[in-house]
Structures are given as structure tokens and as C-alpha cells.
């Protein structure tokens, strides 16, 4: 029972370190390491200029099937989530029906959830914006999930875009998109992101010092991820 506070402390430290880097830097780090993790087409719908980072709690949605547990989609994930974690929903890219709504947002805020990422559409955007819950999705739509989709599982591997995401993985989302980092590679990715960040900071300083841009962005820049 005693190790749990230490793990939570470690998780918070890793989340803070992840949040130091934007999704572009992390995507470059993954490219350098030959890993996948960046997802295109997911955009912030309720907040602007805000970056979220944390561990993943997963939800898998799909068509209504006889025999599935009778529970509201996303509710179990909210119950399971720890403060600071991020709910990630496999919605198979659907933009014709909502995979998240306002009541869920209220529950997520009360639980201290840091944000929601949906590979598809959600609704009650204005309500979630007023609540201050960051939501990243493909679209907003008013159509309810009732009778159209159902929760197939929670706390299981899911697919977002073309990326397989496991419970406990890490995610960062900002204005440029969403990047997932596998929990077993977090230390390596953070180290590579730091190296890229330092190198780009030097380039920024050179540009601000009026070094010609073609000199700053020369052959060394083009090859920095190889």
C-alpha cells in the first residue's frame, strides 16, 4: 500500500516534464527514434493556447451490440481515472454521432481529469468550454450516442488514428495536435525531446541575432532527425 504515493509523485513529475515540450518537438523525437505516436486531425474544441499532458485512461466505442453492459459510455473511465489523467476515446473517426457530452464533462471536472481526447465527434461543446475542460476531437455534432453507439470496453488497448494506445501510456495535446508516448519509452523520448529542444533554442537565438535564415536552416537542420 505504501508505494502508491511514490508512483503518483513520479507520474506528476513525468507529466510536468512532458508538458515542457510541445507536440511538434515530441513528434520529432519519436521520428528520430523510429516510433509512431502523432495523430493528425485532432484539434482543441473547447480551449485555445492550452497544453495538456498526462497518463491515459482508455474507452473503446463501437456499434450497439446485444449483450453489452448497460452503462453510459465514458462513465466507467471517469470513475477509474486519477486526478491529472486524460480520457482517450476510440470512436473510429466517426463525426456523425457524439462520443462525449456535457454531463460527462461535469463528472470529469469533479474528478480532476485533465482533458479528453476523442477520435471522432463530441457534443455540448459550449458547456464543456464554460466548465474549462480541454477536449480534443475531430468535430462537434449535436447527435446523441443513445441507440447509435455503445461502450465496448474500458481500460483496454484502443486505436486513435493509426496509433495503438494502451492504458497508462502518456499523451500530450496542444494547438498542433496530439502525440502519444508509450509508457515503456517515456524516459528515452523525454531525453531525445530535450536534445531537440536545446538545438532549436540555439536556432531561435541565432535568428533573433539576425543570422540569415538560410544559414540557420541549412543542411544540418534537414538532417537533424536522421
Percent of residues in β-strands: 25-35%
- What separation lies between the terminal Cα atoms? 45 Å
Mind describing the biggest β-sheet?
10 strands, mixed
The CATH C-level class name of the largest domain: Alpha Beta
Question: Low-confidence parts, pLDDT < 50 over ≥5 residues?
Answer: 1-7
Helix proportion: 25-40%
Looking at this structure, what is the CATH superfamily of the largest domain? Ribonuclease E inhibitor RraA/RraA-like
Quaternary state reads: single chain
Query: Count the helices. How many?
Result: 8
> What name is given to the CATH topology of the largest domain?
Glucose Oxidase, domain 1
> In one word, what is the shape?
elongated
Structural class: alpha/beta
Could you characterize what this model shows?
Mean pLDDT is 91; it is low at 1-7. α2 crosses α6 (186-208) and α4 (102-111) runs parallel beside α5. The strands form two sheets. Strands 1, 2, 3, 4, 5, 6, 7, 8, 11 and 12 form a ten-stranded mixed sheet that branches. The protein has a two-stranded antiparallel sheet with strand order 9-10. It is of the alpha/beta class and 226 residues long. It contains eight helices and twelve strands. It is elongated, with a radius of gyration of 19 Å. The N and C termini lie far apart (45 Å). The protein has two domains: 3-183, Ribonuclease E inhibitor RraA/RraA-like (Glucose Oxidase, domain 1), CATH 3.50.30.40; 191-222, no CATH class.
Amino acid at each position: 500500500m505504501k508505494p502508491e504515493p511514490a508512483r503518483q509523485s513520479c507520474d506528476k513529475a513525468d507529466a510536468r516534464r512532458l508538458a515542457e515540450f510541445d507536440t511538434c518537438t515530441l513528434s520529432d523525437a519519436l521520428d528520430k527514434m523510429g516510433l509512431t505516436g502523432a495523430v493528425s486531425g485532432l484539434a482543441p474544441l473547447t480551449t485555445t493556447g492550452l497544453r495538456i499532458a498526462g497518463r491515459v485512461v482508455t474507452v473503446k466505442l463501437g456499434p450497439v451490440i446485444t449483450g453489452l453492459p448497460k452503462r453510459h459510455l465514458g462513465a466507467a473511465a471517469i470513475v477509474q481515472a486519477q486526478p491529472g489523467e486524460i480520457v482517450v476515446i476510440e470512436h473510429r473517426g466517426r463525426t456523425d454521432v457524439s462520443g462525449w457530452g456535457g454531463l460527462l464533462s461535469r463528472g470529469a471536472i469533479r474528478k480532476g481529469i485533465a482533458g479528453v481526447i476523442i477520435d471522432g465527434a463530441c457534443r455540448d461543446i459550449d458547456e464543456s468550454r464554460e466548465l474549462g475542460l480541454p477536449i480534443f476531437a475531430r468535430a462537434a455534432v449535436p447527435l446523441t450516442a443513445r441507440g447509435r453507439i455503445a461502450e465496448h470496453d474500458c481500460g483496454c488497448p484502443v486505436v486513435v488514428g493509426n496509433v495503438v494506445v494502451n492504458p497508462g501510456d502518456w499523451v500530450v495535446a496542444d494547438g498542433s495536435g496530439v502525440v502519444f508516448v508509450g509508457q515503456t519509452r517515456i524516459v528515452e523520448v523525454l531525453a531525445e525531446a530535450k536534445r531537440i529542444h536545446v538545438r532549436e533554442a540555439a536556432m531561435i537565438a541565432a535568428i533573433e541575432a539576425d543570422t540569415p535564415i538560410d544559414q540557420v536552416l541549412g543542411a544540418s537542420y534537414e538532417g537533424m532527425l536522421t
